[in-house]
Each structure stands twice: as structure tokens, then as C-alpha cells.
Amino acid sequence: MVVSNPMYGGGMSIRKKLLASSLASTWLEMLFFGGVATMVTAVSTLTPHQLTLNNGLLGVLGTVLGLVISFRTSSAYERYSDGRMRWTNIVTFSRNLAMTIWIHISNDRPVPPGGTRAPTTLECIIEKKSMINLVQALAVSIKHYLRGEPGVYYQDLYPLVSFLPRYAAGGQTEADMLPMWHASEDGDYPYQHKVGSLNDSTNTLTTSYKEEPSSHGFMGSLRKHHKVFDPEKVLPVIEVHRPLKPAKNPPKPGFTDYFPFLKIFKLILKPFRKSPRSQDVDIHAVLGKKRKPKPCDSNVPVEISLFLMSYANTMTKEGHIPAVLAGNLFAGIANIQDALSNLERIANTPLPFAYQAHLRISVWVYLLALPFQIVETFGWLTIPGTIFTTFMYLGFLEIGQQIENPFNYDLNDLDLDEFCYMIQRELHEITAHPLPDPSEYLFTGLNQPFAPGDRRTAQELISEDEYTHSAHGPDSKPGLHSIQRTLLKGWKDVDLSTRK
């Protein structure tokens, strides 16, 4: 999935800015109430009839509506902010999980019980890197799950989970298929239930990426601002028996997105539409073929968590991680599950329809009565005043409706894809460290540990038999006393130099 980078493309287009603003959803109501205001003003100004109402109710009703709309917008933003906070937790826990797996699980292991040899260092590193990839897959699966996109066949998810077992122990048939894989299959691209089916060239689709040569080297490529990026290019290239869905597939804005009042006709005509598969069902019934029932959905993030939890349990039982730190693995997975539960609560608990309908009807009544109450005072200014009031009141309602579920593809929603890319970058940054012995890099000529009190390098310091620094005066004793004076001098220098 090649995505344009808006930073170097001038930002959002005017069309996207229009769709992102509340103007796209309220312009029809603005025209309607503006028309009502025009009619009331014209009749009251150009004819002897006065279409006026007592404005005593205007202040009271306007104050109440303002408070209710403020509560509506605040509650929606609270859900938006809560969703962002939960994704921050997922990023943090994913980072901690990866660090615990990469650093604390041992690469030097004994022969396992019942085994013939001890695993090699390479095998241990492959094992740990694969589980860290599962941590990344967990975040990606949460993104798709919140967007209502079931299954695992996505460009950013399938390459990370393709090695997971598809069947229960000892099985190779559809009846033995594990829930995550069973719920992902459909009748369009049937899976061959046999060993080695993914190696059958007649039943696989492969994706290859063309490496682009760079004449600037690695650092040069970092400094070069690319106008497009392809996040899926860095994922494994795995054979698959069906086309993978794009990692990000937002619906294209339709005609009714610009003309919202036409959506009522879609609702009226919906019961009379035939399903696109209705003809297929009839044909299969005539031919006597039995259509396979639609598989039940499964919670992919939970199933990926099961594999991570099982791995943590195995490492703990076999003693490959210190018992004190083993709790970090279980706690990290449990915390991500807690974040997922809260995200599900936000996504699946909309504001009650009765509350939304009552509030919108109240605002409409208020806006209908507004021109009749202010025309005597404002005259022709009643028209722009009514239009602006309509935009302000209904705009807040639309904003609240847009952000109460911030996990979809609306332009005002949270950028879940960027959160997943952030996790991907950080996990690869963690595994890029080879974990050398600290003595290999601490005692070199590039380290000045006691600066600014003592600017000698660590290599120069350890060349002495005992630490001493002549700048501390003749009463300074070699050893720990001199070190303490160096640290105190460093504190004084930093304290004076960093205060404004």
C-alpha cells in the first residue's frame, strides 16, 4: 500500500478539508434555516405583516441548549481522548514487552528435557525476534478489529502471523482449523487443507518488492525527504493462497456525503434491494449444491495474545527468564488486553439514539423560532445571524457525532495506522541492538563520565592506579574522596549553568 505523505504534498486538499470540517454536514441546514430567516425578514420588512414572537424564551432556551451541547461535545471528546490514551498504553506496553523478550530471555540455554541438543544462539534469536513480530501483529490486529475488519488477510498483518499454526494438534481438515484462521477463510478463495499447500505454486500468490538502489547510503536516505512511503515493503514476503486486503482501505466519499439529506432515500430503498449474492444462492439451490455457511467471527487480538502468553509461560517454566522479570511479560500482555477492552467499550457504546434525537430536534425548534424573535431588532441582519447560529449549534453536534468513535477512517479520527507504524519502528530499533558486554563500550576514549567536573576520558581514568584530580586542591585525598569532590563540582557547575 503506497501512501502519499501529506507533509510534502501541501497538506490536505480543499476537498478533504471540506469533508473534515462540520461545514460539509451542516451546509444544507444552514441553507434551510437561512431560507426561513429570509422569508421572515422579507415579510416583516416589505409587508405590513409582522412575523415576530416574544423573545423572552430565547435566552432561557439558548442557555439550556448551550449547556447540553457543551456536555455533548465534552463527552465525545472525552471518548476521543480516552481512545488516544489507550493507544499510548498499547505503544508503551508493546515497547516494554519487546525489551523484556529481547534482553532478559537467555540465548544460552541447556538441553531441554527429552531433547538431544541445546538450541543454538541463532535459534534463540530467531525465536525471540519472531515473538517480537507477534507483539507488532497484536497492535495491528487491534487496529483492524476496532475498524470492524475481521480476519488476518491484510498486507500489514498476514506476513507477521503466517507462521502460526492453522490446525489443532494432529489435524489437517477444516474441522480442525483454529478459530482465527477459520473465521478468516471464505468461499471466494478456498484454502487447500493439506500439508504443504502453501508451497504449491498453482495455489499461491506472491508479492515481490523491487529494491531501489541508493547512491547516498543509509544516512543519506534518512536525510532525503521522500514524497511517498510504502510501509508494507519492509514486511516479510510470504506466499498466500488469496490476495491480501490493503492495510488501510478507507471508503471513498459518496454523493450522499456531500448531500446528507439524500441518505433518507437509501434507508427507504434498503429493504427492496437484492443482495449481490442472492442470484448465486438461487442458482446453487437449483443445482442442488449446498453453500458453506458463513464462518463465525473471532477476536484475532485475543488469539495472538494466547500465543504470546503461551510463550511467556514456556520461558518461565523452563527458567529462560529470571523469575523476578517473568511477571513483566504476563503483566505486559494483560495490560494490552485491558487497553483492548477499554477500546472496545469506546467503539461499541455510542451515545443513546434517544438523547441524540431529542437534542437535535430541540436545536431545530430553537433555530426555527430564532428569526421570529430577532427580526424586529436586527432587520436584514437576521439572515446572516441565523445562518451563523445554525453553523455554530449544529456544527458542535456534528463534531461530537464524528469523534465519539475515533477508530474509523474519518478525517478527524485517530491515526491508528501511524500508531502501528510507530510500534513497528520502535520494535525494530530495539532488536537492532546486539546487546554487547558493557565493558566493550564504557572504557573508551569517547566517554567522559565525570564531565563537567573532570573532562578526562574513561580510558585515561582507568590508566591511573587510583583516582585523583589535582584541580581539587592539595587537601583532596585520592580515591573515593576525590571522586566525591568531582561529582559535587559537576553538580555545582550544572546547577549554575542551567538556571535562567
From TrEMBL:
<feature type="transmembrane region" description="Helical">
    <location>
        <begin position="353"/>
        <end position="372"/>
    </location>
</feature>
<dbReference type="GO" id="GO:0005254">
    <property type="term" value="F:chloride channel activity"/>
</dbReference>
<feature type="transmembrane region" description="Helical">
    <location>
        <begin position="52"/>
        <end position="71"/>
    </location>
</feature>
<dbReference type="InterPro" id="IPR044669">
    <property type="entry name" value="YneE/VCCN1/2-like"/>
</dbReference>
<keyword id="KW-0812">Transmembrane</keyword>
<protein>
    <submittedName>
        <fullName>UPF0187-domain-containing protein</fullName>
    </submittedName>
</protein>
<keyword id="KW-1133">Transmembrane helix</keyword>
<dbReference type="GO" id="GO:0005886">
    <property type="term" value="C:plasma membrane"/>
</dbReference>
<keyword id="KW-1003">Cell membrane</keyword>
<keyword id="KW-0813">Transport</keyword>
<dbReference type="Pfam" id="PF25539">
    <property type="entry name" value="Bestrophin_2"/>
</dbReference>
<keyword id="KW-0406">Ion transport</keyword>
<keyword id="KW-0472">Membrane</keyword>
